[in-house]
Every structure is written in C-alpha cells, then in structure tokens.
Amino acid sequence: MDTEIKTTLLEYEKSTFLLDLVKHENGELYIAIQQTIQLNNNKTEVQKIKINPTIIDDLISVLNEYRGQLPKIKKKPKNYLSPERYSEIVKRYLKGNIRIKDLAIQFDTTEEIIEQVLRNKGIAIINEEAPKKKKVFRFRRNR
After folding, report:
1. Are strands 29-38 and 3-11 parallel, antiparallel or unpaired?
2. What whole-number distance in Å separates Cα of residue 35 and Cα of residue 91?
3. What is the DSSP string of 76-99?
4. Could you give the angle at which helices 111-120 and 83-95 cross, rounded to 10 degrees?
5. Given phi > 0 = left and psi -120 to 50 = alpha, else beta, which region is 22?
6. Long-range contacts at 5-9 (CB < 8 A, ≥ 24 apart)
7. Distance in angstroms between the alpha carbons of the first and the last residue of the chain
8. pLDDT tens-digit readout, 93-135
9. For 62-102, what is each residue's pLDDT tens digit?
10. Looking at the DSSP assignment, which residues form a beta bridge with residue 18?
C-alpha cells in the first residue's frame, strides 16, 4: 500500500492539480500528479501520472525551457486562490464558528478544496456533525 507523505493543491479556472509525495510499499519515493478538469457539461475528467524521482531534474529542465517559449500571462484564473484567500479561509476556520460547507459557499469553491487548503496548512479537520445519541435499552423483569 502506498502512503502519501505530503499533498499540495493547485487550483485554476478549469483544472485542479493534486501533487503528492508518495512512499511506495517497497520504501521508494515518487511523485504522483492528478489533474481534474471541469468540463462544460458539469462533468469532470481525471488524469493521473506517476513520476520517478530519477527523472525530475530532466523534467524540470525541459519544462523551464518550454516556459521560456510561452507567452507571458498576466491575468490570474477566475477561481485562483491567492495567498490572501488561503489566509482568510484558514482564519475563518480557526475561529471555530464556520463550517467547511459554509466556507465553500463563501469562497465559491468546493468543500474538498477548502479541506485541502486546511490540510496544506497543517490544520486538523474536525467532524462537524453533532454526535448521535445512543439508544439505551432497559429490560423489564417479569414478576
């Protein structure tokens, strides 16, 4: 069984990326990237890739070369979570009077994204449901 050591979320207008540092059951580390694309018909498409650590330097080198050939984009995507929005999400959650569901509505994103932001900041997520009452059975003795 593989174990996730660290997870980072990158959110953009129509895609989110989960980058995981994963420890394989044989003890080796690798990087797993999952892209979720929001399609026009409210469906999602998920793509996954696993990267061996021995090729990371070559991969970064090629990506940097390509980046130099791409046009500069100054506009941030619509649903981009800036550092200020990250901080505000964390601040509101730590106050203790706002649920993840409500934060998702306020920041126009999903509950999963809010949970991932909190996990990325090292914040434990508590169960927000009220505990259920246990039924107590009482036995009557027949006289």
Report:
1. unpaired
2. 28
3. PPTT---HHHHHHHHHHHHHSS--
4. 90
5. beta
6. 5/29, 7/116, 7/119, 7/120, 8/120, 9/113, 9/116, 9/117, 9/120
7. 58
8. 888 778 888 888 888 788 888 888 888 888 888 766 655 666 6
9. 989 988 888 876 655 555 677 788 888 888 888 877 888 88
10. 9, 34
pTM over the 0.85 mark: no
Residue 47, C-beta contacts closer than 8 angstroms, at least 6 positions apart: 34, 35, 37
Tokens at 124, concatenated: 């434990």
Question: For residues 82 and 16, what is the distance between their CA atoms, to the nearest angstrom?
Answer: 14
Helix (H) / strand (E) element for 5: namely strand 3-11
How many C-beta atoms surround the C-beta of residue 117 within 10 A? 23
